[in-house]
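Risk register update: the risk of archive-format incompatibility is retired. Evidence:
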Amino acid sequence: MTTPPLTLYNSLTRAKDVFTPIDPDHVRLYACGPTVYATAHIGNARMAVVFDLLVRVLRHIYPHVTYVSNITDVDDKIMDAAAETGRDISDITAFYTEVYNADMAALGNAQPDIQPRATAHIPEMIAMITALIDHDHAYAVDGHVLFNVPSYPDYGRLSGRNRDDQIAGARVEVAPYKRDPADFILWKPSSSDQPGWDSPWGRGRPGWHIECSAMAARHLGLPFDIHGGGVDLKFPHHENEIAQACCAHHTPRDAADFARVWVHNGFLTVGGEKMSKSLNNFITAHALLEGGMKGEVIRLALLGAHYRQPSDWSDDSVHQAQKMLDKLYTVLQRAPGDHAVPTSADPELVAALCDDLNTPQAIAVLHRLIDAARQDDAHMSVLKASCDLMGLGQHDPATWFATPEIGDALVAQIERLIAARETARKARDFAQADTLRQELTALGVTLEDTSEGPKWRPNNT
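Archived output:
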């Protein structure tokens, strides 16, 4: 059966368009990766899972796909982490890059074809900034270089923000050397104890926005097919990327001359509330995995809602994902040994994914395929091929049902949280008790209140 056309919602056109690659023999896409100063929260994981799935679909259709996703390893947050811990910046970034890649692999994500580090592309950034100055789109003052937003009339096209919104959303505070309040930093000076590189404007380091513009141009060329990330990056980060790239390369004013299609995934909430450290509901993929939660459970829970819609991370979403995967692996466990040889994915599942990555519909098809394979082994190869396309069912069933091991340190943390929750319940502070229960869920713990007191067990047992 012929694969249906792939449609994607393009944030630039604000419409669901049929995807037409610049070169059908080589599709190129870029997604903004993590800043490596701590473990990635599940909002970052959602982006990685969404783009991994998009790459899988593209590779199902096209012969050659290059996927680039960067590592930001120079940033004020990284310097703050170094100051707080006394660790060298390079040690911090190397450690958390390794943790990030291991965590994302556990979620079933293939590593990007190219994972450029910002610090390895300083010459490209300096060259781009120099071109912006030469084309009168940027200016140097007091060791800083700033992009002059009014010099690019198309600024705001991606986000749809007006002039007042642009100024209000500027990430850098208004400084006296700015020509316009919306202007943003391309280069800033570094003190002797901060990371820095020699440049025509003095020793310094790049602003955040210039990194992705330079790395995307270096590894994909301009224009390329798809750019994206979380919806929170649409403004100002992605808006700034477009302005820098188009102006530095002296392209026409059309924002599509940087990237043709812009894909953004929606926010992630926890228990109906926005993730925040103040609410103590900030969940990392690393903590979930260390707590014994299976990576595929996280992946399926993150795919349960359409990628453009807000998604709530809750006990129920995790439970439903666990239940479905247990059902899948129960079927795979009794399958003939040769079932792993795939034929092709189910056409209805492929059609759902080609419809702007309609994962709720694709998951509904998977449910049907699981039921069919449970009744007749003849459906097993189609089920396996469909799971492969979704990045699911990738483990040996015996391994899947094995009891997870939990280290002593994690057991002690779990018991402290349970004790704190009991104290909160006795004080009738039910809001705090609920918050502590969410933390336990984030650690991959199932908690049951019994007549003998609270009982806990790792998920999957």
